[in-house]
Write a structure and sequence with these properties.
Keywords: Signal. With about 425 residues, the protein is of the alpha+beta class. It has helices at about 1-15, 50-70, 125-130, 175-185, 225-230, 255-265, 315-320, 365-375, and strands at about 20, 30, 35-45, 75-90, 100-115, 135-140, 140-145, 160-165, 165-170, 170, 190, 195-200, 205-210, 215-220, 240, 250, 270-275, 280-290, 325, 335, 340-345, 350-355, 380, 385, 400, 405-410, 415-420, 425-430. It has three domains: about 1-145, no CATH class; about 160-290; about 315-430, no CATH class.
Length: about 425
């Protein structure tokens, strides 16, 4: 890999750097045929997706230049790109290095003219992915581009990994959501209605609020389902519990029977499990505990989006279910409906859509979330449903089947459907207007 990157860097430095790249610029006019480059990369859960995207753009540009031989001075290249992540190995494991992913990249390069020079990007800027930042407004031909470093709370490490029966990472019962946010930063999941709210930090820590006051804390290794864990920022805490006698119990290490007894005296609910540490030894470890009032059910708007037409569909905005929202390090404003739909909202319309297999609620330890999905059903996309045959896509657009997926293109949406035994299981689609 190091040799390949060195070769690519040398190739760029030895080539003319006059070409400019344009994304989402509708003023570009094609002057020759579009060239499509597809590439992919395997990575683990702990690997940086941003770095992987940059490497795939690098590889695609290298292949494009090889085909084109050289780029003319001041040439304009319009680029349409799509990333699709497929997680396919050992999904249920809690170890970040045991979850393997495959990142697919498709780039369409079109030599163009009359592009808006105010939106021109150098090769380095395009590879860095700065065009994926949020374009907020255009004023006097100047485009204001902001990254995710705005005034909202940021993901951050807790200053303390320690909890007691009365304090949870420096928070305590009775504090407001604003006070908890100041201490813990940005949450990765929120399930709420007007009076009840649950916020999850990382993947394993839930804070329960009633009437804007913290009333309960919950830790569990199986707090959330795999489909949600896969899109959350991986920031799990090595939980340490300080008992009233000042003894420290660590969740990641074997726990003694006396420690379990002590924990049960100070916490409302304690759960352990046995782990095989060697061929002859088995350890008991803490996998869950809670304190205070836990919210078991949250009333919500049960409406699901079944049809996606254009970005200006008047029904989309008002019908989006906002009860359950996720936030990751690379995406924000992700709404999740109880009908197996992930809706990525950008600039007041749905920019990306993920349809996933029905979630099993048997092992979800966050009860309110389990009840949320129990009231939903499998996804439906403009008449095409979960487990329908691949051929059903023909009524919506064009598709090309290969391996375990189907590349789908239509007037409004492009992307991939993932398949098994000739049937549709899940999908990742991007709006053509985004």
């Amino acid at each position: 890999m190091r040799t390949l990157l060195f070769t690519l860097l040398c190739f760029w430095q030895c080539s003319a750097q006059a070409a400019n790249y344009f994304v989402k610029d509708k003023s570009c006019e094609a002057i020759s045929e579009q060239l499509t480059i597809k590439t992919q990369m395997s990575l683990f859960q702990s690997d940086s997706e941003v770095k992987a995207q940059q490497d795939l753009r690098t590889e695609a540009l290298f292949e494009y230049k090889k085909i084109k031989n050289s780029l003319a001075a001041n040439s304009q290249i319009y680029v349409k790109e799509r990333f699709v992540m497929n997680r396919d190995v050992n999904q249920e494991s809690t170890s970040s290095n045991s979850i393997k992913k495959r990142l697919f990249y498709t780039a369409h390069f079109t030599p163009s003219k009359h592009c808006n020079e105010n939106q021109a990007m150098s090769e380095a800027t395009f590879i860095a992915g700065e065009h994926t930042f949020r374009i907020l407004k255009s004023k006097e031909k100047k485009i204001t581009i902001l990254s995710n470093s705005d005034d909202r709370p940021a993901f951050k490490k807790f200053d303390s990994k320690l909890i007691t029966s009365k304090h949870f990472f420096d928070t305590k019962f009775g504090q407001s959501t604003q006070e908890v946010t100041q201490l813990l930063g940005l949450h990765s999941l929120e399930l709420k209605n007007e009076s009840k709210r649950i916020r999850v930090y990382g993947r394993h820590h839930a804070f329960h609020f009633v009437n804007n006051q913290l009333v309960g804390y919950q830790f569990h290794l199986n707090l959330l389902p795999m489909q949600i864990n896969n899109v959350l920022t991986l920031e799990n805490k090595e939980l340490k519990i300080k008992l009233s006698n000042d003894e420290i119990v660590e969740a990641a290490t074997p726990i003694a029977p006396l420690q379990i007894t002590a924990l049960k005296k100070e916490f409302a609910d304690v759960e352990t499990a046995y782990y095989k540490s060697s061929d002859t030894e088995v350890d008991q470890r803490l996998i869950g505990l809670s304190q205070g009032q836990l919210i078991g059910e949250i009333a919500f708007n049960k409406h699901c989006i079944k049809s996606f037409i254009a970005k200006n569909d008047g029904n989309i905005d008002k019908n989006i279910n906002t009860s359950l929202k996720l936030t990751s390090s690379s995406e924000d404003n992700i709404s999740v409906t109880p009908c197996s739909e992930f809706l990525y909202k950008k600039a007041d319309f749905i920019a990306k859509l993920k349809l996933f297999e029905p979630i099993s609620t048997n092992n979800i330890k966050l009860s309110a979330l389990a009840n949320y999905f129990k009231q939903g059903h499998s996804w439906e996309f403009s008449g095409v449903k979960y487990n329908d045959p691949i051929a059903s896509l023909a009524k919506l657009g064009n598709y090309d089947e290969f391996f375990d997926s189907v590349e789908f293109t239509s007037q409004y949406w492009n992307g991939y459907f993932y398949i098994y035994d000739g049937k549709l299981l899940s999908a990742e689609l991007t709006s053509n207007d985004y």
